[in-house]
Amino acid sequence: MSDFLINYILHLADTTLILSQRNSEWCGHGPILEQDIAITNISLDLLGQSRNFYQYAASLIGEEATEDSLAYLRKEREFKNLLLVEQPNGDWGQTILRQYLYSQFQYLLFEKLQQCNDEQLAAIAAKSIKETTYHVRWSSEWVIRLGDGTEESHNRMLKAIDELWRYTGEMFEPAGYETIVDVSLLKNDWLQKVTTVFLEATLPVPEKVFMQSGGKEGKHTEHLGYILTQLQYMQRAYPGATW
Amino acid sequence: MVTAHSIEEKKIWSVLETVTDPEVPVLTVTDLGIIRNVKINAEGIEVIITPTYTGCPAMDMIAMNIRLALAEQGYKKIKITSVLSPAWTTDWMSEEGKRKLKEYGIAPPNPKQQVCNDKLFAEAEAVQCPHCNSHHTHRISEFGSTACKALYQCDDCKEPFDYFKCH
Predict the structure, then answer these.
(1) Closest chain A residue to B85 measured between Cα atoms?
(2) Is this complex scored with an ipTM above 0.90?
(3) Domains in chain A, ordered, with CATH?
(4) Global confidence as pTM
């Protein structure tokens, strides 16, 4: 059971860390200053959430484990993040859509997680959901703005849906260790909320798309290795380096 | 009854009242409401704090500054514990803290939580300009220079200002 719990916490930690890392790539490159600040603020929130999860996992693992060793010294196949969050930023539309699809899911997940029997997980979820609420609202407003914007922005959102939709199925397929919240039960609510936003955005909800999975079990798309190369570089090149 | 214990506790709280937030230096950690408890026991003293936002980079520095301030007063065994539950809210900010924020040019959080829901394209909260007191203001961005602030502009005096958003 303890291994299940540790793996589950690492899955939550890795997902928030990798999305944070992806979003942080926008730092200094956002379309306008306010939105550059918004996406990096979201990145910071996600980093804070991942630190809480890593710290908790490290306390359960004991020995020499720390939040840093878990983030910096695990290999690609040990990462359990969702495939969706490791996908490239693409254009602003693709980044926005990735954020929205994930935040909408995270909101529903944390709503349940904050009521679970594990006190620390419940506390992290209750703390984080206040931030997630902002992320959902901000990203859904942008999905609508771009989808129902110009022909150019609409077409880019169609392309983003085409790129990312295939990675959404995995969120609702429970991994073996995922016993605390039954994610399969979140699917209908998620789809309903996404459909409402897509309708407003004049975007189609895809049907019958083949879904990719494996991230939760450490089988990733080719992108994760590159992310880790950058994220872990300092600790790999200079083991034990501190600020 | 005033005991030695409670006098000591009072003294620790008064030390904490001198520790400020590195990002918003007019606010002390007690103004922010992030000190949840102070415990004195045989092993030393324990200060229990809670973060404002999960990713707030100031939290590590705040913990260090609390340790330094107490060490300067001669306390030796200091333990700082961070707890997440119950989650921090701007409702815990002191009235004194709100007054100081406004004086500093940052609009203090509204008492009623108006923005913490997922309603789309909602009217921006009515926030009073800290410079000219006008309510005739608009939101530029709900994400600002730090996680806890949103960016507003006053339509009367035209000054842009930070709003310490309710959370």
Answers:
(1) A123
(2) no
(3) 2-237 (1.20.1260.10)
(4) 0.92
